[in-house]
What we know:
2,3-Dihydroxybiphenyl 1,2-Dioxygenase, domain 1; 19% helix; Glyas_Fos-R_dOase_dom; four-stranded mixed beta sheet
Amino acid sequence: MLDHLALQCTDVGAAADFYTRVLASCGVRELMRYEAPGGGAVVGLCGPDSFPRLWLGSAVDTGVRPVHLAVAAPSREAVDGVFAAAEDAGTEILHEPRIWPEYHPGYYAVFFRDPDGNNLEAVHHTFPG
């Protein structure tokens, strides 16, 4: 359903470094970078499908509107890898990795903040069957 998401960042370079470092175990990497017509970098991040689904650009509207972004992880180990990288980055951990049975029995996720205060999640779904 979701094609792409764009986030406004106070420091695009730092945000791109954070996302690619912390979400590396989910296959997130920088695909493209260019200068916007009005100035400032725009960075397109992709996952294993090599399609730029997460865009980072300069903050235009600095009102307080945190976003919740959930990134699919290929395994529980990848979620744990995101957690370790987020801890290494010194970011705020909202919830350590665990199963969230209130969502469904195989919902395994970690929640943390990005440098701009957005609520990020890495999640792996295991369905019985």
